[in-house]
UniProtKB/TrEMBL annotation:
PANTHER family: 2-C-METHYL-D-ERYTHRITOL 4-PHOSPHATE CYTIDYLYLTRANSFERASE, CHLOROPLASTIC (PTHR32125:SF4)
Role description: Catalyzes the formation of 4-diphosphocytidyl-2-C-methyl-D-erythritol from CTP and 2-C-methyl-D-erythritol 4-phosphate (MEP).
Lineage per the UniProt record: Bacteria, Pseudomonadati, Bacteroidota, Cytophagia, Cytophagales
Cited Pfam families: IspD (PF01128)
Sequence similarity: Belongs to the IspD/TarI cytidylyltransferase family. IspD subfamily.
Protein name: 2-C-methyl-D-erythritol 4-phosphate cytidylyltransferase
Pathway: Isoprenoid biosynthesis; isopentenyl diphosphate biosynthesis via DXP pathway; isopentenyl diphosphate from 1-deoxy-D-xylulose 5-phosphate: step 2/6
Site (Transition state stabilizer) residue list: R15, K22
Sites marked Positions MEP for the nucleophilic attack: R151, K205
Keywords from the UniProt entry: Isoprene biosynthesis, Nucleotidyltransferase, Transferase
Gene3D superfamilies cross-referenced by the UniProt entry: Spore Coat Polysaccharide Biosynthesis Protein SpsA, Chain A
Domain of life of the native organism: Bacteria
Length: 222
């Protein structure tokens, strides 16, 4: 079964307080996005890698690859207005098989999670990675108050989110809606249930300066 990974890298540096897009910030001297590519390549060199980037950043990414001697084979696709549109653009370059969608700024995804994600998607068609909530959670109500939610019933969603190509292409053959926050939400709107696999608290998404500090510590202890 052919396997693909679409690595979505359309972020900006706003929450990071940087002018440089967060996927290009250095982690241990190497851009975060290269670390993410390496994670998938190490897990399985046969996975076909596709990166989505804003069109205006593609030349800079090419220069970074030369500078950091990144020779991992991958295709670059111009992203769209939203994550939804970026994934939809990338799916045009995917044939039959399985496809994982992954955040470009989650460089610590493990080989075990990648393997399990593809393995279960081969059976269930739609699989997302998630971890249990650590903190107590409250829900805001319409009257301006809040109520406690049983955290044992909740999960924090991560990536990769892995699907059969046929299913994901069919699900994305729809108009964009604001509640499409990830690929699972698009697939659920299409009418397909998703299965969960256990994620990893180290599989962080680097979006703030605090995240980058944590990421440096994780890299030092890798």
């Amino acid at each position: 079964m052919k396997k693909y990974a679409i690595i979505v890298a359309g972020g900006t540096g706003k929450r990071m307080g940087e002018s440089l897009p967060k996927q290009f910030l250095k982690l241990g001297g190497t851009p975060i996005l290269i670390h993410t590519l390496q994670a998938f390549n190490i897990a399985d060199p046969e996975i076909e890698l596709i990166i989505t980037l804003p069109k205006e950043e593609i030349q800079f990414w090419d220069e970074l690859n030369v500078w950091h001697q990144n020779y991992i084979t991958h295709k670059v696709v111009a992203g769209g207005e939203t994550r939804f549109h970026s994934v939809k653009n990338a799916l045009e370059h995917v044939d039959e098989g399985l496809v994982a969608i992954h955040d470009g700024v989650r460089p610590f995804v493990s080989a075990e999670i990648i393997h399990e994600s593809f393995s279960l998607a081969n059976k269930k068609q739609a699989v997302i990675t998630a971890v249990k909530m650590k903190d107590s959670v409250r829900q805001l109500t319409e009257d301006g108050k809040s109520k406690n939610i049983d955290r044992s019933t909740l999960r924090m969603v991560q990536t990769p989110q892995t699907f059969s190509v046929d299913l994901l292409k069919s699900a994305y053959n729809t108009e964009f809606k604001n509640h499409f926050t990830d690929d699972a939400s698009v697939v659920e709107a299409y009418g397909k249930d998703v299965s969960l696999i256990e994620g990893d608290y180290r599989n962080i998404k680097i979006t703030t300066p605090e995240d980058l500090v944590i990421a440096e510590a994780l890299l030092a202890n890798k």
